[in-house]
Amino acid sequence: MARDLAKPAAAVLMGNGLADLAAGAAAKKLDRVHVVEHELLENYTADGYAAALQAVIEKLRPEIVVFPHTYQVRDYAPRVATRFRQVLVSDVVRCRIDGESPVFVRQLFQGKLLADVRVEGPAPWFVSLQAGAFRSGDVEAGQAAVEPFAIDLDASAIRAKPSAAFRESEGAVDLTAAGSIVAVGRGVADESDLEMLRELAGELGAEIAASRPVCDNGWLPMERQVGSSGQTVAPKLYVAIGVSGAIQHLVGMKGSKTIVAVNKDPEAPIFEVADYGIAGDLYEVVPALIEELKKAKS
Amino acid sequence: MKIVVALKQVAGRDSAFEVRPDGIWIDEDDLEFEVNEPDAYALEAALKLKESEGGEVVVLCAGPDRTSKAIKEALAKGADRAVHIELEDPERLDTLALAGLLAKVVETEAPDLVLTGLQSDDLGSGQTGVVLAELLGAPHASIIMEIEKSGSGLRVRRELEGGWFQHVELPLPAVLTIQSGISKLRYATLMGIKKARSKQVRHVSAEELAAGVAPVIRLDRLRLPEKTKETQMLDGPPAEAAAKLVEKLKFEARTL
Question: pTM above the 0.80 mark?
Answer without folding.
Answer: yes
